[in-house]
Amino acid sequence: MKHTVSLLGLSLLLGACATPSPAPVVSQPQPVSQPPLASSQPAAVVPPVVQPAAPVPSTPTTQARPAAANPRQLLAKALPDYVKPREGWRDDITNAFSALQLSPSAENLCAVIAVIEQESTFQADPVVPGLPRIVWSKIGEKAGGYYIPLGLVKTALLKTSPDGRSYKARIDSLRTEREMNELFEDMAGEAQSLGLPVGMKNPIRTGGPMQVSVEFAEAHVRAWPYPYARRGSIRNEVFTRRGGVYFGTAILLQYPVNYSQMLYRFADFNAGRYASRNAAFQLAVAKLSGSKLTPDGDLLRYQNGAPSRSTSSTQQALASLRGKLQLSDADMLRDLKQEKSFGFVDTPLYRKVMQLADGQGGRVAREALPQIRLQSPKITRKLTTAWFANRVDWRYQQCLQRTR
């Protein structure tokens, strides 16, 4: 039987090249008068929604140093020696803090530095080793599912792309996510003339020096003004140094928490905002119900950004506690829908669960590292959110030492 490869089918094949990474929740930011308190790549979180943010609370267990009188001087000491161009990175970080109205304390600046160092070692457009192999492997897997020989797919990709090279040549020479993003943008732009679906979406979900979700960035600009003149789409801005630093700083610091260590912000950066708080809540529910719950920080199941009809394991465990909590299923669902906001801690469900758990042997933790296995074509080792958070925290402590 003769096999043919249409470009419509080709879009289905290429759509498997990037692992989906749902975007973190976007809280509508408010000016921060004091530093957010200390507390990538897939994140098990829901798509972005805009919610008002509460003021950053104080905490009795940690005392952040005051903001630097001259953040640029502080950054001169905080940045690792190998960083180049130092002035460029320094300016992009300080501009992000100013635009986001965040306090440039040593703790906050070092938190951003630690994430950049972990995610890209200060490469504005980080190289992904073996990216062509990863892409061809995924295309081959998908082609096999359609009984299409990979050779025929490569023949179809010999068509010339807008930059003058064939799509095949561009895949063969891929080095960075920015290049991969541009490849898919060109294919989407030529969709109608090439026979691709007009609504074809770019499957690249994260990018830039802090590995920020494109979906988060697109939601953030709807809640907070982007400070730079755009060079194309917000998606393209994510892949620049200035845009990557700006949106990465926003997702890391521009939301209120009452964590005792920055460590838990790093976990949230990887797993989704408030995942560390929610993981501790799940541990409290497990303690009260005797259920085996994985503390992954997701209290509900979601579909297309809204709670699905499928009941989560956390909901099932809570259902066994109706009598003790004196809350109906509807009451609990109402409160669980606030799991991606700071206000969840003020709901009757959260207060009653934590109060009951405290009464069984002492105060339970209000924060815990989510237990999530990281999945991505780029990850070849068994890594977890806890590994990520601890690794970033190690870099964070090193940075603080440089500022003293």
Describe this structure in words.
- The structure is a single chain.
- The protein is mainly alpha-helical and 404 residues long.
- The protein is 48% helix and 3% strand.
- Among the domains are: 7-20 and 131-202; 26-124 and 208-257, no CATH class.
- It has 19 helices and 6 strands.
- The protein has a two-stranded parallel ribbon. It has a two-stranded antiparallel ribbon with strand order 3-4.
- α2 packs across α3 (86-100), α2 (71-78) crosses α19 and α4 packs across α19.
- Pfam families: DUF1615.
Helix % is 40-55%
Order of helices and strands: HEEHHHHHHHHEEHHHHHEEHHHHH
What is the general shape?
globular
Strand content: under 5%
Provide the gyration radius in Å: 23 Å
Mean of residue pLDDT values? 82
Strand order of the largest sheet: 1-2
Please give a quick description of this structure.
It is built from 19 helices and 6 strands. With 404 residues, the protein is mainly alpha-helical. The chain is globular and about 70 Å long.
Question: Key features?
Answer:
404 residues, mainly alpha, two-stranded parallel sheet, two-stranded antiparallel sheet, 6 strands, 48% helix, globular
Please render the helix and strand layout as text.
Blueprint: H1 7-14, E1 26-28, E2 50-52, H2 71-78, H3 86-100, H4 106-120, H5 131-145, H6 150-156, H7 167-172, H8 177-189, H9 191-194, E3 206-207, E4 212-213, H10 214-223, H11 234-238, H12 241-253, H13 263-271, H14 275-289, E5 302-303, E6 306-307, H15 313-319, H16 322-325, H17 329-336, H18 348-358, H19 385-403
Parallel strand pairs: 1-2
Antiparallel strand pairs: 3-4, 5-6
Helix pairs in contact: 2-3, 2-19, 3-12, 4-12, 4-19, 13-19, 14-18
Keywords: Signal
Pfam family, one: DUF1615
Protein name: DUF1615 family protein
